[in-house]
Amino acid sequence: MPFSAADILEHLDTAVVVVDRNLFVRQVNPAAENLLGVSAKRALGAPLLPLLDDDETLKHVLASALERGETFAHELVLAPSDVHASSRMVECRVTPRSHADDTDYLLVELIDVTRRMRITREHALQIQHGAGRQMVRQLAHEIKNPLGGLRGAAQLLERQLPGAELSEYTRVIISEADRLAALVDTLLGPGGPPNKQPHNIHELLEYVVRLIEPQASDGLKILREYDPGLPLIAVDRDQFLQAALNLVKNACDSLEHQGTLTIRTRASNNFTIGDVRHGTIASIEIEDDGPGIPPELWDSVFYPLVTSRDDGTGLGLPVAQELISRHGGLVEFESRPGRTVFFIRLPLATESRDAD
User: 300 lies in which domain range?
Assistant: First the structure.
């Protein structure tokens, strides 16, 4: 029994929208209803662009496809909505067609590539973390061992000096050697595998807030949006606290203690970290409404010694990434002026490797 074009369109997993040359929706399949978060009844006869956040580039792509009779492709980001809690990356393919009555229309295919893009980005973060960890080991080897010899030589020299005035110089050498050794220790972070025990993650986050509050000014507002349904999570208490504290301090420094810091927890289902798919993970989000991370630093923020602040060390983020990676998790971020979010992704249980 032959299938009609409408039947095929109805059962496609790819979202398909048909628009006329005035860019009004004439047909929409169920996959497109799900992607756009709108019913066919509401979409039919409506202009397409508002359904796609009035993407200006897409407007030009649609016009070019009509004018030149050629297929064009474009990627766009759909903002969070009442139906979809987070933003999504969508690959859009626009193909011009003519009907039997010579009416021109456009076939718009929409593919949600958010998961694919996120996995690609996660792999890049893991590569970056691996490179950063190698840099740390090289720094530890190249700096710490000579520092020990330098400190010892300064101590021996101090014993041979005749007066206290000259000894002051050797004390400066010893003090600076100790400072640099502490810097390297900070780069390396707490050593050893995590000693995982079940913890209420919200109690740990409240402990971090108590550590921050004495340093915070009256201009800093701290909000909590905790998911009470999260179970106990197996983490190393000290390592998790250090990672969370680094991210919270980083947000406070970005705000210069004037703005809103939001700490949010929630569960996410069917989530992939690296090449491992987890049925459920915990997502701890640390959000600030500061100026954001400069775009030129987006690809390197997890490298040691990378910072946009004059007084920053560039150690907080790589150490946090290292400590969370020891738990099989990952630290990610999104940033734009007025909203920067760091996500701590922690698996709730070990799952199978992703087949994708």
Answer: 193-356
